[in-house]
Design goal:
Elements (H helix, E strand, L loop, with lengths): L2 H7 L12 E7 L1 E2 L11 E2 L20 H18 L7 E9 L7 H14 L1 E12 L8 H8 L3 E7 L3 H6 L6 H14 L2 E8 L6 H13 L4 E6 L7 H4 L7 H17 L3 E4 L2 E3 L6 H7 L3 E6 L3 E6 L2 E7 L3 H9 L4 E6 L2 H12 L6 E2 H8 L7 H9 L3 E5 L6 E6 L1 H5 L1 H6 L3 H5 L3
Parallel strand pairs: 1-4, 1-11, 2-3, 4-5, 5-6, 6-7, 7-8
Antiparallel strand pairs: 8-10, 9-10, 12-13, 13-14, 15-17, 16-17
Helix pairs in contact: 2-3, 2-11, 3-4, 7-9
The structure holds S-adenosylmethionine (SAM) and iron/sulfur cluster.
Length: about 425
Amino acid sequence: MNDTVLHYLRPGTLQLAALPPLALYVHLPWCLKKCPYCDFNSHEAPTLPVMATPKVGSGRAGLSSALESRYLDALCSDLESALPLIWGRRVHSVFIGGGTPSLFSPDGIARLISDIRARLVLAPGVEITLEANPGTFERERFKAFRKAGVTRLSIGVQSFDDAALKRIGRVHDAAQARAAVAEAREAFETFNIDLMYALPEQTLAELQTDLDTALAFAPPHLSIYHLTLEPNTLFALHPPKLPDDDLASDMLDLIVQRTAAVGLSRYEVSAFAQPGHGCRHNLNYWQFGDYLGLGAGAHGKISFPHRVLRQVRWREPAAYMQHALQGNAVSNQNEVSRADLAFEFMLGALRLPDGFELARFTERTGLPLSAVMPALEEAQRRALLTLEPAQSAGSISWVRPTPRGFDFLSDLQSLFLPAARDQPG
Ligand SMILES: C[S@@+](CC[C@H](N)C(=O)[O-])C[C@H]1O[C@@H](n2cnc3c(N)ncnc32)[C@H](O)[C@@H]1O
Ligand code: SF4
């Protein structure tokens, strides 16, 4: 066993009874063009074939094969260096995110998945998601990703309205978005459509049309995000005219009604799914599961019996490749402090309307229940969550945010900040 692993296995004050499920995230950092609202670690691809205005069904999308294969080499080396930290653990889901992973060739994605399979034990029926942008769509491309081993496609549509797409600087138009979703439906048993709402100048009627278009495809999964102005983006510098809070709140009500009417259940703040089609990978994040993050700027969380480790990889793709190829992909790592663990757990767990089993809190954080009971009781007093008793009297088994808690989620979560827990009431 190497020294780093022994270091993380040493005794400590946390007592995790079991290690949580492990997932793998792989970040592919390039896009056709940087969107003006986006603060993800995404970079305009350096060498692209001419495809500024790709036509539906005939566009060509891709990176130079030299860049693609150097990046895949770097990922492989990154994975090999990380293996001792997760030795013997089975991987339950893989998420290939970005950036725009569909810029990679299907052969490149097949190589990535086989590199992963050669080095990790994947659970039977493992979910392997790939994020795709309709601007990279070409006929047969999604089927080729399916053949490469991807089991679930997540398509960044954002809107089906040409004017709205233009205002948010997307590279694709509505026809390409519809063609991409239709192709995904043919190639995959399960897929996701990403939409955003409260777009610049958007009306309720326009959102309704977007929703109707999306729902007409009967998507197994729909993610709908409120457009946020993130610092260090073009939109933060030159803010567009956005719907006011009242309109945005009416929009959310409309989303909740329309999705429920077609049998999509809201299983997380922004995620709606048909039964059996929730995203296992994202659920693992929200339930404070573990994930190894490979690729430029990727974040990871790995538990040991007495500590929880967070890692970040080098952010710039060139620096990442250089460091990863030298076996040194991690730019920062730190143990989550005892004081921060409860808040970090609640950040994800309270996003789920079903809440969580209280025993999971102890299992995943290694903290005693006493670390969190005063804040839970305060949240119950404010009607932000319910504490449901166990069969055996005297103990609590389940924690569930109330609809009010869901509406004031950040107030609810902030009750678990270390400072708030020190001064209850
Ligand atoms: C990494 S992107 C996914 C795929 C691909 N890059 C694309 O955009 O087509 C993940 C999703 O986050 C959402 N997103 C990105 N920036 C956002 C913002 N500022 N506010 C709200 N949602 C955002 C978009 O819906 C986007 O599809
Ligand atoms: S395509 Fe996706 S990841 Fe790339 S810049 Fe746009 S929103 Fe960000």
